[in-house]
Amino acid sequence: MHHPRWTDEEARLRNAICRIGKLGYDRSYIVGADGNISAKMQDGTILITPTGAMKGFLEPEQIAHVDMTGKAIDGGPKPSSEVGIHIVAYEERADVKAIFHAHPPHAVALTIAGVDLQTPIIPEIIVTIGGIPTAPFGTPGTPELPETIRHLVGCSDVMMMQNHGSVTLGTNLMDAYKKLDMLEHTAKILWLAHVAKGGLDPLPAEDVRKMLATRAQLGITTRNTLENDCGA
Ligand SMILES: [Zn+2]
Fold it and tell me: Rounded to whole angstroms, how far apart are CA atoms 38 and 63?
């Protein structure tokens, strides 16, 4: 469906947010009215899931359209109460065009259990996402929460918020979803290994160094905290 007021870009992004919301809901990365998803338009405004909605059942006209202060600009739906998370990330990273904030259960559980997701263990994750930094706890629904991730956004496209959820940044919506998918799959593997072994050992530093060196050959230029040492 295509609202007459929407540009092609806006119609495409509204539909994509609904599709990604359904994917995240179907995979249980969000339940109930959890989480929020946004995309930045070429004019610098933001499309974001509305407050209180179940992201598995969204229609394109339910998406909120806000400016970089989080104010609705078209008299339409009110944005998510966590719009601040998205604004902080867009402020700090001009290259980021989409963001998914979710509550992936294994990843959140590991932050609650105090398992450090920075630990380099799985080769493909070391080379791509890198370490996964965790921001200190912040009270949801207050300006405190977005500020907890401000310094991490420059370090990594994937981060956890202590006892709460994930934030994944992408060059588009599928890219932000892909990183969430990889994050929760990684957390599930680490969870299983932790239970089976009673702890987790990092790969030897020399192996990690060699894997990081392959990034350039593979053309991977995403921010990686094992490489830039920030946020650790
Ligand atoms: Zn949340």
Answer: 9
CA of 36 to the centre of ligand 1 (A): 8
Calculate mean pLDDT across residues 129-140. Answer: 95
Type of residue at 205: A
Does the pTM exceed 0.90? yes
Residue 1's pLDDT band, with cuts at 50, 70 and 90, is low
Q: List pLDDT tens digits, range 76-97.
A: 899 999 999 999 999 999 999 9
CATH number (domain holding residue 214):
3.40.225.10
- H helix or E strand, kind and range, residue 183: helix 173-197
> How far away, in angstroms, is 99 Cα from ligand 1 center?
13
Q: Is the pLDDT of residue 177 over 60?
A: yes
Q: Where is pLDDT greater, at 211 or 3?
A: 211
- The verdict on residue 157 lying in a domain is yes
Let me know if 82 is a catalytic residue. Answer: yes
Which two structure tokens, joined as six digits, stand for 199? 């702890």
> Ligand 1 centroid to 10 CA: how many Å?
25
Mention every residue, 6+ apart, whose C-beta is less than 8 A from residue 229.
none
**Per the structure, how many domains does the chain have?**
1
Domain extent for 100: 8-228
Burial call 132-147: b when 16+ CB within 10 Å, e when fewer: bbbbeebeeeeeebbe
Q: Which of 82, 92, 144, 227 is catalytic?
A: 82
